[in-house]
Amino acid sequence: MLQSSIFALCHVTVFFLHLCEAEDFKWTDDHHSSFYYSTFPTGFLWGVGNSAYQTEGAWNKDGKGLSIWDAFTHKKGKVYMNETGDSACESYYKIKDDIALLNELKVNQYRFSISWPRILPTGIKYHVNEKGIEYYNNLINTLLKNNITPVVTLYYWDLPQVLQEKYGGWQNISMVMYFNDYANLCFERFGDRVKYWITFNDPWSIAVLGYETGEHAPGMKLPGYGAYKAAHHIIKAHAKVWHSYNNLWRSKQKGMVGISLTSNWGEPVDITDQKDIDASERYMQFYTGWFANPIFKGDYPGIMKDYIGKKSAQQGLSSSRLPTFSTQEKTYIKGTTDFLGIGHYTARYVTHKIYPLSQGKYHTDHDVMEFVDPQWPNSGSDWLYAVPWGLRRLLNFIKTHYSNPIIHMTENGVAEKLHCAELCDEWRIEYHKSYINEMLKAIKDGVNVKSYTAWSLLDKFEWDEGFSERFGLYYVDFKTKNRPRYPKASVQYYKKVISANGFPSKKEVESWHRKSIETCSTANQLLAADPLTTHMEMVTEIVIPTVCTLCILLSAVLLMFLLRRHS
Ligand code: NOJ
What is the position in ligand 1's atom list of the atom closest to the CA of 51? Predict the structure, then answer.
């Protein structure tokens, strides 16, 4: 945390220096801030999301196996305050409650993930945990009964620990086969009802944070190699699963299989400087293109191949640190997605910078330096600044580079600034409102966006940040055993956007804002009453049983005493 704050501070300082040099750079051109009143195309889908490890809890219940996140969080010093997802939001026990929240929001779709070790405790297909299957069947069936479409992610970072220990996880090519077996089991058991499948969520984080910097599970620090190797296997695994669905299940089940990439937007610091424009292109290709290029075009972006190849040679290596696809593999991988999922949170300004060779790692291979504008609103996450216009640029980048694919916005959201209960989250309303509006502008530009998923339904376990960052539309009281949920003002606001399918008029949109803030103060009172609930729980769960036990003991002693005196 400290490290990243210093990093952010340095960015800001360097950025100010740069500002002095580029006096005529315009920060906030008018097209950035103007609001566009209009509605989304008919049939546009609205949703909200969550993931298994972040919310389910029940980490060792009903036959579930360990995941790399269970193992990682149980080691000291890996997560803020050594917190774990052992109980998280207890969502494993709260299907009905959570679906009631979805009904309140009136979303048409719910994005959740299946925990691989919950249904295959050792990761491999020979031992299926029927209790795990039953849980997801129950969830899917209840969603459908409530007319909510399930959007299911197969891999949301929780690899079975056995596969990590035996093979080194995504460093090993055998994961392609194991992941394919697991995916086929999901298609077999749930595919009659699930029509939207996402193979991987945010492979960038899996590779870079899991195998390059080690900030995330499995915590491997392999700078310069780890991320590229993990990504290589992930891309192959994605393609294999898409082909399996295509060949074995599609004709019967008629669903779609895609991948969800999370990406920042990288804006050139000086849009008139070709070096900065090139730096922006490299930033985007190393982020989004790394995965999108092979999937849409069959191979890694040329820029990645050139830069990593050149750097590897300068380091005296006989081959590039970036693995290569064979001609056959390129053909096999190309075109393996029915839609592209996009997760997006923030942006950076970027410029050209040459790093010393000794730093041969992912973050420096592209010769790009990132900055933030100190005027951008920050959030509860030190990396997340609200830069809504970045989303429109990103979506247009995808349209141009990958022949205008079908896009589903699979994640977009922001975390609380405060750690205490903040139900009147006016700034979250502002965040979603402006990002959704930029998405609407992108649709006007001709980008093929079909749905929007707000991230996330609940406050939840935020990976290495533990529970310190709250992304939820619903506040979760983690101090109380059954994890009660309380609506934040953004629930009321998002509901209105959904029911109007966009932003019909200034007058209406402004009234939503007012009403949302009014209702959150009532909810705040509920939360204020919460210590009372906790107190009541303590009375019923601890005090009463203790007093009763003491009374029984005392009566027994008294009885014995009387009996002795009689005899
Ligand atoms: C993206 C991750 O996919 C998600 O799990 C996380 O909650 C958000 N980033 C916010 O950090």
Answer: 5
Ligand 1, CB within 6 Å, residue ranges: 51, 54, 201-202, 262, 343, 411, 462, 471
Q: Which two tokens stand for residue 234?
A: 């992930």
Task: pLDDT band for 551, please (50, 70, 90 cuts).
Answer: low
pLDDT band for position 5 (50/70/90)? very low
CB 104 within 8 A of CB 495: yes
Residues of the chain with pLDDT > 70, as a percent, come to 88
Q: What are the residues facing 256 on neighbouring strands?
A: 196
Q: Pick the residue whose CA is nearest to atom 4 on ligand 1.
A: 462
Q: Residue 195 C-alpha to ligand 1 middle, in angstroms?
A: 23
Q: In 10 A of CB 550, how many CB atoms?
A: 10
3-state secondary structure 116-142: HHHHCCCCCCCCCCHHHHHHHHHHHHH
The pLDDT tens digits of the residues spanning 109-162 come to 999 999 999 999 999 999 999 999 999 999 999 999 999 999 999 999 999 999
Q: How far is the CA of 345 from the centre of ligand 1 (A)?
A: 9
Give the pLDDT of residue 545.
57
Tell me how far apart the alpha carbons of residues 108 and 254 are, in angstroms, rounded to a whole number.
19
Contact 114, 189 (CB under 8 A): no
Q: How far apart are CA 210 and CA 158, in angstroms?
A: 11
Question: Can you say whether residue 77 is alpha, beta or left, with left for phi > 0 and alpha for psi between -120 and 50 degrees?
Answer: left
* Separation between Cα atoms, residue 316 and residue 318, nearest integer Å: 7
Give the H or E element holding residue 267.
strand 265-268
231 vs 213: CA distance, rounded Å = 14
Distance from residue 460's CA to the centre of ligand 1 (Å): 10
Please write the tens of the pLDDT for every residue from 209-235: 999 999 999 999 999 999 999 999 999
**Residue 202 CA: which ligand 1 atom is closest?**
3
Two structure tokens written together for 257 = 């299989």
Q: Residue type at 549?
A: T
Task: Give, to the nearest 10 degrees, the angle between helix 226-244 and helix 174-190.
Answer: 40
Amino acid at 560: M
The domains located in the chain, with CATH, are 3-528 (3.20.20.80)
Cβ atoms of residues 184 and 190 within 8 Å: no
Contacts of 296 (CB under 8 A, 6+ apart): 334, 335, 337, 401, 402, 403, 405
What's the gap in Å between 382 CA and the centre of ligand 1?
A: 13
The dihedrals phi and psi of 75, each to the nearest 5 degrees, come to: -90, 140
- Rg (C-alpha) for the chain, rounded Å, is 25
| Nearest ligand 1 atom, CA 465 | 11
Instruction: Give pLDDT, residue 567.
Output: 63
Burial class (CB in 10 A: 0-12, 13-18, 19+), 27: exposed
Give the SS3 label for residue 111. strand
